[in-house]
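Now produce a polypeptide, keeping tokens residue-aligned:
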Amino acid sequence: MTTVRTPEPGSIVARRRVDLARTKQAIAAEVRAEMARQQVTDEIVARSMDQTQPWFNRRKNGVVAFSGAELAAVAAFLGVEVGQFYGRVVTVPDPDGQPVGPAGLEPATYGLKVRSSAN
């Protein structure tokens, strides 16, 4: 018999699982949005990938994550860059009101200032 430990709530493993689930959902939402903009159905995209509509639907709805190759195929079919599915890029100010840099699925770290506590 094998014992499997589940991560404690709030542990780094639990947080990473949540982050991966959010990423999967965010990418799926971007795919759905682009399909809606172009008025393309699940079946048409699935057929372009030589897959069934239910197979594609599970990915489009975030039940199953897109692989890199699958996402590239969807992007090519829709005529967009793959990066578009990784979310909007916005500039957010730091606490001093200065731009930090692009923000999307990754946390904004460009241009952050390190403040020493030993002054």
User: Anything to note?
Assistant: The longest helix spans residues 12-38. DSSP finds four helices and two strands in the chain.
